[in-house]
Amino acid sequence: MKSTFKMVSTTLGLLLAAGLMIAPASAAETRTIKVGIGLNEQSPQYTGLLKFKELVEKESGGRFKVDLFANAQLGDDTKMMTSLRAGTLEMTCPSTAPIAGLDKKWMVFDLPFLFPNEEVADKVLDGPFGQKYLESLPSQGIIGMAFWENGFRQLTNSVREIKSPADLKGLKIRTMENPVHLATFRGMGANPTPMPFSEIFSALQQKTIDGQENPSTTNFLQKYYEVQKYTTLSNHFYSPFVFMYSKRLWDRLSAEDQALILKAAKESAVYQRQVNRETMGKAVDGMEKAGMTVTRLTPEQHNAFVEATKTIAQQFEADFGADNLKTIRDEIAKAGNK
Ligand code: TK8
Q1: Do the Cβ atoms of 82 and 36 come closer than 8 Å?
Q2: Which residues contact 96 (CB under 8 A, 6 or more apart)?
Q3: Burial 318-337 (b: 16+ CB within 10 A, else e)
Q4: Which residues on neighbouring strands pair with residue 238, listed in sequence order?
Q5: Which residues contact 289 (CB under 8 A, 6 or more apart)?
Q6: Contact call for residues 282 and 294 (beta carbons, < 8 A)
Q7: pTM of the full predicted structure?
Q8: Is the dihedral of CA 156, 157, 162, 165 positive or negative?
Q9: Band of the pLDDT at 265, cuts 50, 70, 90?
Q10: C-alpha to C-alpha distance for 49 and 36, rounded to whole angstroms
């Protein structure tokens, strides 16, 4: 009897050692996905991440845990993208503007007055053109999961009301680190200064810059009304966000887990865009109540800004490719006519 027990236990030990037997499921490890963003915990971007976290943790039955880091705790957008490429951070969600630092063709999304409204932006970004761009990111060490929404960008400043491009003359305006943004403001007579997002508030407070431009929800949630007197609802750029994963870390996941994460990223994109749009109007009201002068442009005033920036596309055609510019303009025209 004894010898049989000894034989069975020896055999089991050998099988386990050879990895031919899987440890009980309860011993399965929980893997952590870290996500860093620059905006704060009240932002619609963070609300979208909470939805993503809920979906991934639920669908994986707890095999994945998603940890969120807001307020640029893990660095600014460019730094966090570098961390993804190095494989030291799983996910981040920058605007398209800094991605142009990796691949110039991304500049096309930052052209002034490119998209007429959010609905057309959604169709083009979620259609073949946007997906082709996402599919080009692995060559940069990044997996592009989905387009989320930063939104139409509005001007704020502490010097004067802005109703025309001429009113921008000489104003020091913080822009994102993107040549199209710099050229657009320089072309209107402003003095653009690229700067990481997390440095904006103190730069405005110390008056090292006169103004900046971001979607109204960001302008309100960052409390720029404490250091800015004027905002003009110019809608001069539409900023998409790109929800992205480190390729180095993505390649270590099973196909099943990759599909689970990608599905959650896409589902939370729809939710995040909806939340983002619901907050814009309230943010403008909040800034007006806080004492800011809110300038709503007339169609003629709006057209003066379109006119003042219409040569920017031509200036950067060599960077993002004339074919890409033609294709996105065709896609926008098609989306607008549906
Ligand atoms: C936050 C930034 C911000 C962007 C900017 O990380 O830099 O002005 O609009 O949303 O991505």
Answers
A1: no
A2: 106, 109, 110, 239, 240, 241, 242
A3: ebbeeebbebbeebbeebee
A4: 152
A5: none
A6: no
A7: 0.91
A8: negative
A9: very high
A10: 10
Find the 296 Cα to ligand 1 centroid distance in Å: 23
Question: How many whole angstroms from 20 Cα to the centroid of ligand 1?
Answer: 50
| CA 60 to ligand 1 center in whole angstroms | 30
Strand partners, 292: none
Q: Which residues line ligand 1 (CB under 6 A)?
A: 37-39, 77, 94-95, 150, 176, 197, 214, 218, 239
Size (the chain), residues: 338
Q: What is the mean pLDDT of residues 263-267?
A: 98
Strands (E), the chain: 31-36, 64-69, 91-92, 142-152, 154-157, 172-175, 191-194, 211-214, 230-232, 238-246, 293-295
Query: What is the Cα–Cα distance from 273 to 251, expressed in whole angstroms?
Result: 28
Helix (H, G, I), strand (E, B) or coil at 274: helix
Query: What are the pLDDT digits (tens) for 16-71?
Result: 555 454 444 344 689 999 999 999 999 999 999 999 999 999 999 999 999 999 99
Backbone angles phi, psi at 257, to 5 degrees: -70, -35
